[in-house]
């Protein structure tokens, strides 16, 4: 099955949700993009980019709206992101990180320590 072409063929939301749910991991990573802040978007020439551990983000939607922090972990199978400052208390009193959807985030600062990521940004510019 050609994953890239089938995403755009159907306009039905149910089929798009089914596609996203059953997509392989390399496609899921692209579907998990988060918006870039305006200065970053202008600098890198792209509107969104997949989040990665170490990126500084701001939460735009939800209970923690306006909170900034660093990405602690990216859960590709669940399509969620864990942020260091976002903790909730469980019934037994322990604190745990709350998974947040990357579509509700804005990347303020990219972690460019990895050469592969720098190359990916350069590819997007072209």
Describe this structure in words.
The protein is an alpha+beta fold and 126 residues long. It has a single domain (33-125), classed as SH3 type barrels. Helices cover 33% and strands 25% of the residues. It is built from five helices and eight strands, in the order H-H-H-E-H-E-E-E-E-E-E-E-H. Strands 2-1-8-3-4-5 form a six-stranded mixed sheet. A hairpin with an 8-residue loop joins strand 3 (56-59) and strand 4 (68-75). The chain starts with a helix and ends with a helix. The model has no long low-confidence stretch (mean pLDDT 89).
The CATH architecture term is: Roll
Can you count the helices? 5
SS class: alpha+beta
Radius of gyration (CA) equals 16 Å
Question: How many strands appear in the DSSP assignment?
Answer: 8
> So what's the overall shape?
globular
Q: Approximately how much helix is present in the residues?
A: 25-40%
Ranges where pLDDT stays below 50 over 5 or more residues in a row are: none
The helix-strand sequence is HHHEHEEEEEEEH
CATH top level label: Mainly Beta
Strand order, main sheet: write it out: 2-1-8-3-4-5
- Mean pLDDT, all residues: 89
N-to-C terminal Cα separation, in Å?
A: 28 Å
Total of domains: 1
Here the CATH topology equals: SH3 type barrels
Largest sheet: 6 strands, mixed
Strand content: 25-35%
């Amino acid at each position: 099955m050609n994953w890239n072409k089938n995403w755009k063929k159907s306009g039905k939301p149910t089929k798009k949700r089914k596609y996203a749910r059953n997509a392989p991991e390399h496609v899921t990573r692209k579907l998990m993009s988060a918006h870039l802040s305006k200065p970053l978007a202008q600098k890198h020439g792209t509107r969104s980019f997949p989040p990665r551990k170490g990126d500084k983000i701001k939460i735009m939607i939800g209970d923690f709206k306006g909170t900034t922090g660093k990405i602690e972990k990216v859960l590709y199978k669940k399509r969620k992101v864990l942020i260091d400052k976002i903790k909730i208390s469980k019934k037994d009193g322990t604190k745990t990180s709350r998974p947040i959807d990357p579509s509700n985030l804005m990347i303020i600062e990219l972690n460019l320590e990895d050469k592969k990521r720098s190359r990916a940004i350069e590819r997007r510019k072209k």
